Structure formats: C-alpha cells, structure tokens
Task: structure prediction
Amino acid sequence: MIRRRDYLLLTTQKLALRKKRAVFAIISVALGVIVVVTANSLLEGVRDVAVKTIWTEEIDPDLIRVYAGENPYELLPPEEGPKQKAKKRIEYLSEAVFDEIRGWPGVEAADRPVVVQPVSVNGFDKRPRGVSEFQGVPEPMLLRYIADRALVTANSNAIPLVVGERNVRLRFDEERGKLESDPGGEKAWLGREVMILLGDNYARITRFQYDYNKREFKPLSEDEVVSQHDTMERNFRVQYDTVVFNTTLTLKGRIVGFCPGNKVLIPLETAELCEKWINQRNRLASRNPARETSEVIYGERGRRTPKTGEYTEGAVLVKKGANIEAIAKRIEEMGFSVVTRARMFEDQARAFDSSMRIVKKVAFAFGGLILGLACGLVWSTTSKTVSDSRTDIGLFRALGATKREIRRLFLGEAMLQGVLGTVVGMVLGWGLALAISHWVIGFARRSIYEPEEALLIPNSIFSMNLRFCLLLIGGAALVSLLAGLLPANRAANVDPVKALKRE
Result:
C-alpha cells in the first residue's frame, strides 16, 4: 500500500527521471497560460482606464446636445450634389424649433451654443494650459454652478465666469516645476477678479512642455514662445491686416462658480456680444472679404449650409428630476441627432468593450490552442511513462498496491505537469504584462494633448484577478487529469505477473 505522503515524492522522482519530456510538457502549458494571463491582466486595466478617462465630464448630466442631421452634400462637389438620389431632407435648427422645445414640460432652457475664441485670462497665464475660449450658455445653466448669487448681482461691471474645476484645482509650481493640486482649492478662486483679453490671437500659444523622463511640466523658453508668436503672425499676414486683426478688447471678469471639466462658461447674451465684436473686427481686418452669394436650393434635400437664423447644433437643459431620455427621444423624432452624457458614455464604453471582447477572444483562442497542444504532450508524456514503468507497476502490484493507487500515481504525475506549467506561465505572464503596462503608460503620456489629462493616466494598467488565477489553476489541473486518465487506466490494468516475468 502506498502512503499518501509518498505520492508526491514518487511523482516528482518520475518527472526527474524524464526531465526533457516533462520540461517540454510544462513549458508548453506555460506558453498557453502566458498568453491568457497577459491578456486578462492587461485588458481589465485598459478598460478601467478607458472608462475612467472617457471625456464625458464636459457634458452636464441634465444637458442634451442637439445636432442637425447629416448634410448629404458635405463631401460632394456642388455640381454632383443635385445628381445624387435624395435620401432625406437636411433640416437645420432654428428659433422656431427652440421655441417649441422650450414649451415642453421638463425643459428649462433651449438655445444654440455660442463659442467665443480667441480669448485669454490673465489669471491663467502661468499654467500649463490657459483659457483660449469661452462657452456662452443660457442663464439657467449658468446659475446651476454659481456658488454665491450675490457675486453675480454685485458684479454689474464684470463678466461672470464659471470656471472648469480642472482649471482652478490645479496650479503650476514654478519652484518645483510640477503641476499640483491648488492648496487653496476653489475658495481661493471664488470671487477673484481677472482681466480678459478678447480677440487675443496668440491665446493658443503653447507655453509649457511635458518632460517624459522627469514626469513634470516645464515652461518653454522665451525664444520658443517668440518663435511660435512669429509663425502665427506670418500666417495672419497672408489673409488679414495685422494692425486691425491684432486689435484686442480688455474686459473685466469675476469667477463666480465652478463646473466639471476645464471649460469656462459665460452668459449667453454676453457671449453673443463678444462673438459679434470679434466677427466685426475680423471682417474689417480681412483683405479679401467673402462675397455674399445668393441662396442656392438643392432639391428636396434642402440647403448645403444654414442661412441666417438657422444653426447646426443646439443645447437643451432639462429640469432637475425630469426624464432626460424621454425628451431626447422627442427631439430625435423631430429629425435631429442628440447626445447626452449617459449616451456618450454608454456608446464609447460599448464600443470599447466590443473591441476588448474581440481582442480577448483572439488571445484566449490562441492560448487555448497552445494549451490543447500542451495537453497532447501531457498525454504523450504520461503514456511514455507508463510504457517505461511496467516493471515498477508490476513490483508495486506484487507488494500490495491496488489498481486505484496505481491510477492515482500516474494521474498525480499528469496533474503536477499541468499545475507546474500553469504556475510558471502565470508568473511569466504577470512579468510580461507589467512590462507591456509600463510601455503603454509611457506611450499614453507622450500622446496627450492637454497637460491636465496626464493626471488622469495611472502609473500602471496591470491588474491581478486572483479568482481568475485560481480558476485557471483548477482548470489546468482538471484538464491534465483528463489528459492523463487513459494512460493511468492502462497502467492500472497492467498484469503484475506478466510485467515481472517480462523483466
């Protein structure tokens, strides 16, 4: 009778006697496990990073962005547009559409968005990314973010600014050369008066660069900033009278609240006035103003471009607690496209998950193929062991070992190969995943466009799912047992008399 403690010793000795064949089987199992573990460890982390950094914080949870339908002439030359078969008439947003939506229950405001650029704010000069545009929004939306209404009512001679949290919560430490959380927080910015330069054509000049080795932002030299300035000015000279085009208007603003993301909101009416001033300046500075063309009708699909009073996009603010999806569906029934924070997040997450599922299936299929071949090697190794151990089997049987004990001995050898290969594969897979994670994070940080986005990128996308690892070890043990079952049964059925007589 074989004692339980001797099973592992005998199994290990058998593997040691057949080192080459056993090692080959273990390595084959390990290769398949490396592929599976590496894919699982990285894809989970990649998904978490992608979901956390999907840029949906710029959309208010109660805001619906509305867009006109696709323009069927957008990519067609004018002479070919009318020849194409009509699909659907292009509809633009208008004041009549906004008036209708405003009358719906649950809607607080509806209007076109007004983006004013280029602008600069002196309070953000020494930051990695300064303010270069304003977004004009309806008053009800602006009031949602205002911390103290008294700041607005007592602010008649200054433009109320609602600043993105990522702008006010971060500051560039000149001494340490790093971007850090502002120790004063939002309170340090609330109520602060700033100077606004309206029509600042150089507001988009890059003033900071990211040092990938030291992982910190550093200001560019004065020469580099001047070089960018000169390049932009040369481009302006081609189309504009730079004397007029470089004219700016200085205004006073006051920070009255904070909103998600890094945008800056101002009242819609103020934005329209700023937009009008910049447009007038640009027309005066333009050497070759665009000629006014008569309105052209393109069959039943409508105009190629909107006319005065028509817009390609709009914004609808829903009251707190209202059913935003029901309102979004009503707008869709009018023939327009809509985007909400939930829809954008779900669409991007769904598209990302779909891609990840495909990658995971391919990786798991490849790993499964290798594991299948490894199981064949385990079966072959165990079969060879049985053939070479007929004398030992006969001796064990003559000493009183039962068929069950002989079967268990060879099944243990097969299972040990699978478990060892799995453990080795997991360790190597984790090492490979860590190396890939380090490379991916470095690549992501080198690919960012806005400095603040670097703070959203974690130090690693590697994740270890212990439950998955335990299931993998258990599965490998089970598959190895199945692979060694036939040779083990053959070993258990060896006639001890014939085996010893043959020796």
